[in-house]
UniProtKB/TrEMBL annotation:
Keyword Nucleotide-binding: no
Domain Methyltransferase regulatory: 218-301
Keyword Transferase: yes
One MF term in the entry's GO annotations: methyltransferase activity
A single BP term in Gene Ontology: methylation
InterPro entries assigned: Methyltranfer_dom (IPR025714), MeTrfase_reg_dom_prd (IPR018773), SAM-dependent_MTases_sf (IPR029063)
Methyltransferase domain mapped to chain residues: 44-156
Keyword annotations of the record: Methyltransferase, Transferase
Protein name: Methyltransferase domain-containing protein
Amino acid sequence: MSTWSSGYNTDLGYTFGYYREISPEWLDFVALSKLVTPPAGDWRYLELGCGQGYGLLLLAALNPEHDFFGIDFNPVHISHARNLATAAGLTNVRFEEADFTALATDWPADWGQFDYITAHGIYSWLQPEVCAAIVQLMNHASRAGALVYLSYNALPAWFSSHPIQHLMRLWQTTESLESVKAIETGIRRLEKLTEAQTGMTRMLPGMKAMLDKVAKHDRAYLVQEYLHDNWHPRWFDQVVEEVKPAKLTYVGTASMGDLFLRSFMPQKFKDIVQDYTDPIVQEVMIDTLVNQSFRRDVFSRGATPMWTAQRQQAMLQQSFVLLNRPPADDELKFKTSIGELKGKAEIYNLFYDQLATGPKTAQELMQVPASQPLGLGDMMQALSFMLNEGHIGFYRPPSDRGPALALNRAIAIATANGAPYRFAIASKLGHVVTVSDVDLMLLTATFDQPQGSATELGTALVERLLALGKGLSQQGKPLTKREDLLPYATQLAETFLQKTLPQWREYGVCE
Ligand SMILES: C[S@@+](CC[C@H](N)C(=O)[O-])C[C@H]1O[C@@H](n2cnc3c(N)ncnc32)[C@H](O)[C@@H]1O
């Protein structure tokens, strides 16, 4: 554990993630649904604890006319983020290495104020004093009307998993275990405890299911989740109290499947919630009903009201694009905290049919069930389900696609050099999409050989893989030798040329 980290584990660099919930359009949708005015005009965006900065770079490239700013105290993260920004030539994003505690009392005036502030995956793992510093910092850094996103491990669900964190960290510190070893050892020992059906594991039956999930997770994530000195899941009402000094009030959840949970939860849940008048207590009661484990809360500094007619106008103009249409013969199911909800296929398929012909506004979609056009509330709920499933996305292509294309190129080149990146920008949709390392390597091969055949690109892929000491897996069978790799790599290049590359061109992942 480093001396500068206030108990925060810095043994491994963090993962290179992208979280759609912190994108401005996602936060705007939450605000609109709750009649709160989203930021407009010359807005600025700040991410606290930006990690490797990968997600922030994608957002910056998608919004080249706005300022983006990332803060993290880990120099490994900041230098990675700056290097990738430089490689892509992005000029609207800045990364600073700084500690929240220092910034709480000394917020540099020239960093200015922001209209969006996000802190994803941080708040539960810090000392209470550092959390208080984050709130102070938010107070200095937010403009009136700003939307602030804070995610955290929530109670009550984490009660049953509390021993996993405590014991893993105890074993690590007392036995001086290196972090990944501590995770492996911890999983083994905890599994032994559940198998032995100890008093504790019998009292906490949820622990076994959590442990099964833990065993499958990425090790870098697990180190960040479980091996900090601090680990404080919270009740929603505690967080609401904690952020009050920054003048923040609750707007709604960025967990999109639950945005309208109050309207579709079972009547017996509604009856329980109705026993309470305070909306914060009601929210806590909902967390107990669904056994909430993770909250993505959106707050506002000043919650500027949006009048009903204004909201209607703003909402109707929003455009959406089809990303992954669910198979037509599948039952339509939408994930929410109360389980999967069935969607009326006859209605949703009409939306998907319309969207299959190109992006559509909410107004256009509302007219689709021609015999019975939907009201705005029903339409927003339907959109929230489809967005949450990733069936559709917000359609907001940047006015200048240059930065997004440049970032994608830098991402592809870095991946061909071994970087573990898995997201790129569909610049014609204004959206982030997942991509595979093999496809990114094949894309870089086309930079050198624009007219390259499948055999030529396949050969280039094999050379890349061998240089990185990597292989391929064909139906679970590992391939590592050149002669074994070549036929399969050629097959992958064929698919890339016929399917992936044309689709990437259509979406604007590349030119
Ligand atoms: C779990 S990571 C989340 C990173 C990113 N938000 C994401 O979701 O991918 C938390 C980040 O907070 C940073 N951090 C922790 N304590 C901090 C502090 N006191 N000041 C600044 N950054 C801090 C860590 O370096 C780490 O990158």
